Structure formats: structure tokens, C-alpha cells
Amino acid sequence: MRRLLLALPFALLPGFVLAAEHDHDHDHAHHDSLGAHEHGAAELDAALVGSTLEVELRSPAMNLVGFEHAPSSEADKRKVADARKQLEQPNGLFGLPTAAAGCTLAESELESPLFGGEGHDHDNEHDEDHESQHSEIHAHYHFNCAAPEALKALDLQGLFKAFPGTQKIQAQLIGPNGQQGVQLTADQPRAAF
Fold it and tell me: Collapsing DSSP states into helix, strand and coil, what is residue 56?
């Protein structure tokens, strides 16, 4: 089951390259790589194969918690804990028709330097090294769906509401009707499979 998730970025690479080239030509941003770190922008990959739905969200921490440094104050730690709690409940974030499709979360994994703050002393040793790096949050989800034919789309309205710092999401979806790439916003949060 993890093989599908790991293979997904490679399967979607041509779509991301085209999207990245289009965005680069369109707004003349100075991004040299596919995974350019842009505040307000996130990436989402979703694959519906048989009764399995895999979803991967990659976002700068700024979009989800409002900062990228290691949480030091109680307020920062609360923001990280709140974001993590919301990410641990993906059904609402992705607008899954739980009753109709019968999708249940089988496995999830959240990764970020912000989540593993204990035992990491970044303050003194590595400040200069980390100035050019940006904290990101990656969320991986594996769902088993009893009636996958009822899963027609992802609706990210809940994600945009929960994380208002996220302005656009470049989504790549693979489903029974093939592969498509679409840019989602709070005004247009829905992508069909």
C-alpha cells in the first residue's frame, strides 16, 4: 500500500513539470525547482485505485501554522498542536462522502520538523544552515473505501477554512477516468476524479 503512495509523485511528474513551467512563464517567479517553496501554495496528490484512496499533502508550515521556525513560545506550540489535530482528521479537510463511499482512514503519517521539536536543539548550532531552508508539513493518508464508485471528487473547502494561509493548491488526481492536474482555491475547492 505504501508503494502506491511512493510511486505517485513519479507518475505525476510530467503534470507537475507542465504546471511548474506554466506557472513560471505566467508569473515570472524565480523558482528553479519543481518543489519550490512558496508561501500560500501547497501540493496535493490523490490516487483512487480500486477501493484504495491515497492522499498526500505537502505544504510550507507557514500556510498551516503561520510560521516556520521551531515553536518556542506556548502560543507557537499551541498552533502546531492545533494544526496537527486538524490534520489528524482528514475526512473534513478533503470533503470525503464518508457515508456514501464508506471511506475509512486505514493509515496516516504526519511529518514536519515542527512536530518533532523535542530533543532538537536548532537554536544555536544550525541557525546559519537553516536560514535558507523552509519548514514544510507533509501529510500522507491511506483510506479503504467500501463503495469507491461513490467517490467522485475531493472538496478541499474544509482545508481552506481550517488553514486560511493556504491560498492555492496544485492538485494531481488519478482515478478511474485517468489523470488530471488542477489548481484549487477557496473559491474553487473541488477536483473531480
Answer: strand
Gap between the Cα atoms of 70 and 119, Å rounded: 12
Rounded Cα distance, 30 and 24, in Å:
8
For residue range 20-42, what is the model confidence (pLDDT) as tens digits? 333 433 333 333 333 556 889 99
CA distance 45 to 99: 23
Is the distance from CB of 67 to CB of 137 less than 8 angstroms?
A: no
Q: What is the mean pLDDT of the chain?
A: 80
Look at strands 52-60 and 41-49 and give their pairing: antiparallel
User: What is the DSSP code string of 148-159?
Assistant: GGG--EEETHHH
| Strands (E) located in the chain | 41-49, 52-60, 103-111, 136-145, 153-155, 168-175, 178-185, 190-192
> Do 165 and 139 meet the contact criterion of CB atoms below 8 Å apart?
no
List phi, psi (to 5°) of 143.
-115, 145
Nearest to 44 by CA among 192, 188, 176, 182: 182
Q: How does strand 136-145 pair with strand 52-60?
A: antiparallel
3-state secondary structure of 110: strand
Provide the terminal-to-terminal Cα distance of the chain, rounded to the nearest Å: 20
120-154 residue pLDDT tens: 333 433 433 344 457 999 999 999 999 999 999 99
* Per-residue confidence band for 155, with pLDDT thresholds at 50, 70 and 90: very high
